[in-house]
């Protein structure tokens, strides 16, 4: 029996000795270092270009309205036609207006005759007054009668002038040169009864405006670049159309509003483009590419290397000892598939392409990645 117990104890001791190295090995084992794809930060030599949504607006717009009451006799233009200032667009029935003018001219003739008669009486009264043949009261009466008659004559003259203007307004002409849009009324319509009825709209679209809003930070950068750049250097403006093509002519920046919209934190801006072929139309949405003069110190990082949080944008940087560190950066402009970084990084540093799960200071095994030129969604 004793031999059996000794044998069991001996076997247990051997078993325990065999387990000790395994436990020590497990205790001394270190976690695996994660492998990460990295990209090297490259300097940007291109001028800063901001891409903004804009909307086209006519250079001049004139609403053509009826200025007299009457029936539309004819529309004398083709809708969409290019017209010059003074081109006849509509004709309103002139018959009632001619009759009104004739009545006004007759009234003027009566007023002129009455004024001439009153003038003769006043002259005789003046002579009789000198001879003391009439009283001073009678003289004053004749004098003021003449004044009243002349005033009535002037009122009649004004009435004739008004009637002539109304007759002229029966021919509705374009106030500006441009493209006449569709007619708002047809022949036979009664217009100008209570107010000036809108007949059509004429728009001048060569040149043409584009209105857009620029974020306040970009607006400040633009103003600073304009101050620092050569006075001969101007911002370059291009338009990208909805079909992806680029408009062949560059534009000119006209102004930027001095007020900032409280809701959008943006500054209203306007540019002007020549539009000889009328390719640009009012109301059209376009992408405005605003290139600042001179060069801005900046670097580029792949789009997937940037992460945005409520605190701002940051990226993970790999140091010389292959440890990852979180780095806040300023990056507001996307150039193709790369973010333009104006603060927080310098050329030659290494950034991790997917490091949101890493801890600050964590060791990594970096691997240079092969980048694609296609844009990807940034991590928010």
UniProtKB/TrEMBL annotation:
Residues of the Multidrug resistance protein MdtA-like C-terminal permuted SH3 domain: 297-355
What topology does it adopt in the membrane?
Lipid-anchor
Report the locations given in the UniProt record: Cell inner membrane
Q: Which residues form the Multidrug resistance protein MdtA-like beta-barrel domain?
A: 207-291
Respond yes or no to whether keyword Coiled coil is given for this record. Answer: yes
InterPro entries per UniProt: MdtA-like_b-barrel, MdtA-like_BSH, MdtA-like_C, MdtA-like_HH, RND_pump_MFP
> What Gene Ontology biological process does one annotation of this record name?
response to antibiotic
Give GO MF terms, alphabetically.
transmembrane transporter activity
Concerning SUPFAM superfamilies, the annotation shows: HlyD-like secretion proteins
Keyword Coiled coil attached: yes
One cellular component (GO) term of this entry:
plasma membrane
Limits of the Multidrug resistance protein MdtA-like alpha-helical hairpin domain: 101-170
Family in the record: Belongs to the membrane fusion protein (MFP) (TC 8.A.1) family.
The protein's name is Periplasmic multidrug efflux lipoprotein
Source organism: Pseudomonas luteola
């Amino acid at each position: 029996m004793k031999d059996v117990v000794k044998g069991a104890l001996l076997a247990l001791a051997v078993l325990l000795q065999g387990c000790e190295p395994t436990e020590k090995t497990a205790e001394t084992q270190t976690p695996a270092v994660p492998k990460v794809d990295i990209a090297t930060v490259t300097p940007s030599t291109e001028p800063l270009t901001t891409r903004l949504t804009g909307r086209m607006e006519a250079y001049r717009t004139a609403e053509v309205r009826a200025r007299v009451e009457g029936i539309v006799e004819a529309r004398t233009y083709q809708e969409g036609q290019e017209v010059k200032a003074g081109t006849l667009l509509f004709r309103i029935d002139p018959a009632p207006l001619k009759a009104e003018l004739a009545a006004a001219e007759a009234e003027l003739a009566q007023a002129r005759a009455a004024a001439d008669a009153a003038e003769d009486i006043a002259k005789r009264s003046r002579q009789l007054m000198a001879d003391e043949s009439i009283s001073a009261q009678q003289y004053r009466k004749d004098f003021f009668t003449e004044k009243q008659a002349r005033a009535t004559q002037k009122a009649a003259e004004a009435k004739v002038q008004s009637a002539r203007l109304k007759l002229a307004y029966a021919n509705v002409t374009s106030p500006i040169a441009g493209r006449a849009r569709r007619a708002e009324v047809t022949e036979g319509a009664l217009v100008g009864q209570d107010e000036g009825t809108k007949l059509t709209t004429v728009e001048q679209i060569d040149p043409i405006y584009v209105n857009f809003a620029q974020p306040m930070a970009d607006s400040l950068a633009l103003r600073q670049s304009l101050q620092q750049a050569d006075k001969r250097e101007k911002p370059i403006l291009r338009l990208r159309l909805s079909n992806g093509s680029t408009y062949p002519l560059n534009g000119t920046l006209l102004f930027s509003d001095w007020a900032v919209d409280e809701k959008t934190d943006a500054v209203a801006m306007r540019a002007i483009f020549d539009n000889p072929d009328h390719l640009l139309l009012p109301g059209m949405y376009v992408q405005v590419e605003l290139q600042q003069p001179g060069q801005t110190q900046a670097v580029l990082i792949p789009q997937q290397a940037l992460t945005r949080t409520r605190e701002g944008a940051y990226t993970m940087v790999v140091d010389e000892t292959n440890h990852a560190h979180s780095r806040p950066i300023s990056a507001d402009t996307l150039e193709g598939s790369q973010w333009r970084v104006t603060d927080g990084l310098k050329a030659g540093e290494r950034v991790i392409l997917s490091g949101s799960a890493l801890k600050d200071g964590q060791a990594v095994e970096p691997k240079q990645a092969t980048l694609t030129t296609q844009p990807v969604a940034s991590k928010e």
